[in-house]
Amino acid sequence: MDTKLKLMIIEDDTALSKVLCETLAKWHYEAVRARQFDNLLQEFIDEKPQLVLLDINLPYHDGFYWCSKIRQISKVPIIYISSRDADRDKIMAVAQGGDDYVQKPFRMELLQAKIAALLRRTYEYKVTEYLFLDGGLLFDSALQSLYFAEKEIDLTKSERRLFARLAACKPDVVTRDELMMALWNTDEYVTDAALTTIISRLRSKLHAICGEDVIFTKKGQGYFVR
Q1: Cβ neighbours of residue 119 under 8 Å, at least 6 residues apart?
Q2: The CATH number of the domain where 26 resides is what?
Q3: Do 92 and 177 belong together in one domain?
Q4: What pTM was computed for the model?
Q5: 34 and 50, same domain (yes or no)
Q6: Is it the case that residue 1 has pLDDT exceeding 50?
Q7: For residue 66, how many C-alpha atoms fall within 13 Å in the half-sphere facing its CB?
């Protein structure tokens, strides 16, 4: 899998910083937690992160102070994460050089989307999009690779194309015709009967690996994953 991007969490709430660190690791980022709140700038220099998650209420100096200090030496993207909801705080966050502002409590999915979008804009390359699926599966949409427990699952060309289509449409239903079109892009001609065989084979393979059903049928409509 791709080299992980490093994110620095500057948050003095130990419980929240641990949760963020664990969640970022699941999203395949390298996460480090700030510990030297009296010397955060030096810690930032030492860690060299590609993005910073920054709280406002911190010991010694607030997040606005540290954002301005970081901005003196770096253009690294900074996302404020704070429970403060006043407009003046959000304006100050931008004025001090922040790139985005997420108010606590927030959904992890929202934070994930903001991180990925900001990394893309900043570094001008496509950040790999990971899709988390039932059964503990992870699909890398850029590489069209499927993983379970950090190990890539061996898929045939047709299985890979079929699953990529299902994952891209998650959780919507994909018709058999749409799957046929996706499979025709491979080097083989796929009949309706062959499609049934490929789906059955892939279902069995994934169930054997993760112990759960992964591909579901919507009677009379098609198939979906979730």
Answers
A1: 5, 50, 51, 77, 127
A2: 3.40.50.2300
A3: no
A4: 0.58
A5: yes
A6: no
A7: 30
